[in-house]
Prior knowledge:
This protein has helices spanning 4-31, 38-49, 56-63, 67-79, 101-122, 127-142; strands spanning 83-87, 95-99.
Amino acid sequence: MNSPDADGLLAEQLLRLTRRLHRSQQRQLASAGVAITPAQSRLLRIVAHYDRPPRMADLAARLEVVPRAVTSLVDGLEASHRVRRVPDPDNRRVIRIELTDTGRDTLRRLRDARRAAAEDILAPLTAEQREVLGGLLSALVDDVS
């Protein structure tokens, strides 16, 4: 059993690592000329995971926010030509959000920035240490308790 002090230290280390990873990713995006907020980035990734363009209500539910918050995010992504609003073919009163080519390119650049940031963070580790860390992270991520 871990002591409260050890757990507190681990929590602090995880928080610091998360911040460092985020800063590295932001630097990568800035150097690639990609201007996007973390919330817009998340929304773009969510839109990409749907088989067909989602409704605004679908996005609000997935993000666990009020629909107005999604509207603001979509407005920003639409202004930067990353998504577009399209009428639902079955119900023209319903608006769906679809990725544009610019949005797909932005997603590719976001993935590249995440990989580069991870490589930056993981650079001091040996291949064996990376494998161990990967196993530990999988155990934490896959734990659904």
